[in-house]
Design goal:
Blueprint lengths: L5 E5 L2 E5 L14 E5 L17 E5 L5 E5 L3 E5 L5 E6 L5 H19 L5 E8 L2 E6 L6 H10 L4 E3 L2 E2 L1 E3 L4 E3 L5 E4 L1 H6 L4 E6 L7 E4 L10 E11 L4 E4 L2 H10 L9 H17 L2 E6 L6 H13 L12
Parallel strand pairs: 2-3, 3-7, 9-17, 17-19
Antiparallel strand pairs: 1-2, 4-5, 5-6, 6-7, 8-9, 8-10, 8-11, 12-13, 13-17, 14-16, 15-16, 18-19
Helix pairs in contact: 2-6, 4-5
């Protein structure tokens, strides 16, 4: 079945899709094609898995089957170049796109040898800065604070790095940000109505205008590891600690074959040694979010010559 539609560019992939995607159009050859499938066209896993919220299966031909119960299912080819999809219920379009634009595309990235991170990034003078941390540490809230100050979004939730001669660059993601209602009220960004991400959460998806999006890859300036603290301060990070944080913040945690794990370790080691990495500590409350943003900007300004390595303290 021909996928039709248009080709978009996001996370460094050219994606041909019959669905409109929140990303710029692309005229080149697609790396990934989305194909709508009918009932029965997708390989079905065991019946017992239909009662679980999420199921993941590696099929005999090397393809990957994903299902979110009552929302959608996907079949990703072994090389990641084809994604068959089927919505399982009407009225779940936002959830469908959300999983497609993150978890599902991460399998295509992995198939192409790319290691996505669970992180967000914004544009600053000198390149892009990324925010890494556990769920609930405030990555999207801090990102929204930067957007409110006039900075552009590079990516939210899924971060993809490309190798350069002297470091890495960050690939632009989807033109959207996910925020909890209290954060969206405190840091209003986006355009149009906010939509709930999934039926089981209060988190909202906000579309962003083109003026708030980076349109091209930007050199990676610094990765900031978000951590709780009594006051706002930026500290250095050893290479060993940075290595462990990068492993911990891998986006896709279900593809765990031996080849992927070996590549993941190499990637974490390279990033820890070649990228400027700092830890930002701050109290977990929105009242200090602007102070956190300003502390990060002051730290960035200390690196006048652009991205630097991550020296051991």
């Amino acid at each position: 079945m021909s996928p039709g539609g248009r080709t978009y560019r996001l996370y460094g992939l050219a994606v041909r899709s019959p669905l409109a995607l929140p990303a710029p159009s692309w005229r080149g050859r697609p790396d990934v094609e989305l194909v709508a499938r009918r009932n029965g066209d997708l390989a079905a896993p065991d019946e017992d898995d239909r009662r679980t919220w999420f199921s993941h299966h590696r099929m005999a031909d090397g393809s990957t089957h994903l299902r979110w119960r009552g929302l959608a299912e996907f079949l990703i080819s072994r090389d990641g170049s084809s994604i068959g999809w089927r919505a399982l219920a009407p009225g779940t379009q936002e959830a469908f796109r959300g999983y497609l634009l993150t978890q599902v595309l991460s399998f295509s990235l992995l198939a192409g040898g790319r290691e996505p991170l669970h992180a967000s990034a914004v544009a600053v003078p000198g390149g892009a800065i990324g925010f890494l941390g556990d769920c609930g540490t405030g990555k999207s809230s801090l990102t929204a604070a930067f957007l409110r100050a006039g900075h552009r979004l590079v990516t939210d939730d899924l971060l993809v790095l490309s190798r350069r001669k002297t470091g890495y660059a960050v690939e632009p993601g989807a033109a959207r940000i996910k925020l909890y209602p209290a954060v969206a009220r405190r840091l209003p960004v986006g355009r149009g109505p906010a939509r709930r991400m999934t039926p089981g959460t209060t988190k909202l998806v906000l579309s962003l205008p083109g003026a708030l999006m980076a349109r091209r890859r930007l050199p990676l300036h610094t990765l900031y590891l978000l951590a709780p603290g009594r006051s706002v301060r930026v500290t250095r990070v050893s290479r060993a600690a940075a290595f462990l944080e990068i492993l911990r913040d891998a986006f896709n945690t279900v593809a765990l074959d031996r080849g992927r794990l070996a590549r993941q370790f190499r990637f974490a080691r390279q990033v820890a040694s070649k990228v400027r990495i700092r830890r930002i500590l701050y109290p977990r409350c929105l009242a200090v979010i602007d102070e956190v943003r300003d502390a990060i900007l002051r730290d960035c300004e200390r690196v006048r010559s652009g991205p630097a390595s991550n020296p051991t303290p």
